[in-house]
Design goal:
alpha/beta; 7-stranded mixed β-sheet; about 10% strand; elongated; 4-stranded mixed β-sheet; 11 strands; single chain
Length: about 675
Amino acid sequence: MSTKSLIHQTAESSEHNPLTMSDEQILDQIYSTHVHSDTKFDVDSLFTLVDNTLRRSTHIVDNVVQGSQVSSEHIDDKIPQANFNSPLCTLKQISHEMSCKPPGEEIAHKTTLSILNKLSNYEWDAKAVLTLAAFALEYGEFWLLAQHQPTDLLAKSVAVLKRVPVLTRPAAVHKHRHAIVELNNLVKTTLQVIEFIFELEKLTSYDTKDVPALEPAIEQIPVDVYWAIITITAIVTQIDCLTTESEHKQELSHYGQKINIVLSRLRKQVTICRQQIEEAKYFHKIRKLLQTPTEIMEVFKVLIFSKDAPQSLFDGATKTTIDITVLKKKNVYLFISTLDITDEEISVLRIVYDSIKTNEQYKIVWIPIVEEWSEQLHKKFEILKSKMPWYVVQNFRTIAGYKYIKEEWHFKKKPMVVVLNPHGKVQHSNAFHLIEAYGMKAFPFTSFDEDRINREIHWVGSVVGNLHPDIDTWMKQQKYVFFYGGNDKEWIQQFTKYATALANDVVVKESKISIELFCVEKEDKSLIRRFWSGIESLFVTKAHRTVDAVTQEVQKMLSYKNETGWALLSKGSSVVGSGHGTTILKTVAEFEKWKEVVVKKGFEFSFKEYHERIVRSTHRCSHLEIPNVAGKLPETIKCPDCPNTMEIYISYKCCHNKNTGNGLH
């Protein structure tokens, strides 16, 4: 034989050898055998009968091989539909395709394709069940005859015709023990594989959005069905080799390895799908609970605790464990966070607690979110718990409703406060920023209260009022105040110089205009952090509102956070205007050019008019850095300086702080 012919023969052999083919190659060949059709029959009842037959048959084989008579009473037969009609002709045709074939991988492959062609109009799970049923018909009969031939003359005669004694007489059992055990175990494994395929097919009624693991599992089913059918084909060939006492045998070990890999993967996929289905059912349950008037305690129970978890709370005020019935008929603030929460963030809720602790209608509950508890995290939890005088969830497992909290309430790294009324209805999906920005002025922190606050224009007082004792005094006196700062010390010095000169100008003094200066950057880092945290919280509370002058001003301020310089001018607790370092410094430095207008039109009008003129003649890109706060941020944001929609960029930041927590971010 020439080298060229040998290569061609080897390539052709490889093309039909399933043991050397990839899943993609197998798919290419078996998809052409499948026709989408509405061919329906009672596949459930057929599988029930196949399962009954093979479980009892394999049990008989185990007894024969072991030489024992273990009772089969422990096997519970399932009951098919009473009106079930067996597709007997189809089963005989499949059986005929498999019978009396010589051993070999290529032949097994061709036989499998032939069976798939015959079953082209059936669904993939039905193809597998029908093939297994055709095998069960023969295998079950074979071992039924083996069991009854010693006592039943008819069974004995039929058994001889089917060559049963060749394999079941003691000497044959002893000789072929390994082969019989191997093929019997392979039958059990293949039955399990088809059982999982059957279950996966039934799960297709679920939405893959709820059960994402279902899609890749379903896509793999045609290949899994192929391996189940070719394994059955190989088993039949091996039985034929043994009963005909052929010198050739069908090698089953490769099929055993492959079908066990398929079984392992299917078992894992089905387990994951079941978990996701349970999660989806829970998700829909909690959503329905929160949409239907329900006692708050019941909502809390389902949201937080898994079925077997102890349902209790830790009372931070009395340092005792209490039952969750304390939440019955109460307005509840769910304080949700990871263990990375700071003392400052805890203090935001302390103000609320101090105000409501004598009011039995309102309760705060801290819900710590931790992915996987460790001894270190337990210690961290105890430290944080000791700082909280309100109720605390002591559930050292993943919160039952974590997926709902994450997806529906948009929980991220930052703490959030979900407000629930006594009927379990959400009054605010995250009031943390509302509380941080306005404190008890926004009580009881519902969406209605947020709307009320948003209608107020005097927002600056809530941000800067607590920064320094003098600020409250200046605001009460309705003084003008320049709040300013930036990353450039030289810019700060320049602004301080020109703003001081402006405040002390004769025209300003004679007009009885009182102007104060407050440099945020000169204060300690804690104060700077509180200032920008207040601005960020305001932004979050206004992000989904109709864009108005207040929203634009807050956005402007947030866009200046990392700039060289910025300034905000207020009168009392209302904002006159704000500006970037380049425009606001020029406005103040060029006071000589517009101070005459102050005498005629007033300081506020003159300042805004001149500053807007400079802004129009200056081009600057606006950058808005939004912190990764809990809650859903708007998909688009209008530029605070022009009518355009801002482009979206993603940036990441690391301050190189050692993170010892294991919270979910």
